[in-house]
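Format notes (please read before filing issues)

Several people have asked whether sequences and structure tokens are stored in separate files. They are not. Every record keeps both together, in the order shown below: the sequence lines, then the token lines. Line labels are part of the format and must not be stripped during preprocessing.
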Amino acid sequence: MEEETLIQLAKCGDQTAFGQLVERYEKQVYRQALGLLGHPEDAADVTQEVFFKAWRGLPAFQGDSSLSTWLYRLTGNAAIDFLRKEKKRRGDLSLDDEDRCWDSQLTDSTAAPDRVLEQKELRRAITKGLSRLSEEHRQVLVLRELNGASYEEIGQVLGLPAGTVKSRVARARLALAKLLREAL
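Then the structure lines:
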């Protein structure tokens, strides 16, 4: 079924149609949340929160942007809210804590042991580097590199012109590369 039809049915309360939309987008939402939060369980919680908010907010969705762009925006906001709550609850939350890294989720376990170790070290360095970037740089890198969003989509999500997004992505890549060179 076409996405527009599913959206219209879901707006009218059709849970099956909404379930199909969730199936189409849950991996993207989870991947974005994981990139922003760095912990699989937190990302799963945020993913659930995003789709709960989407279900409640769908009747007001005007379709000015694509559904994926709207979900990117909801995910980014939910992840930021989550981090703020965690900072208040725990004190100083750090994405580079050993038990909060997503590197173990992304390592290729079929590779040779020395390659696995290299991958883990690189992922750990990337996670640490991402956590040291400003929130605006981390957000654009996650949207662009992990979710594969276009500059236009990122601009819609963040309310920025595509040119500004391009320059932020370029500056964020340079900043992350510098951090990685220092770490490795």
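For reference, the curators noted about this record: Residues 92-107 have pLDDT under 50 and may be disordered. The CA atoms of residues 2 and 85 lie 37 Å apart.
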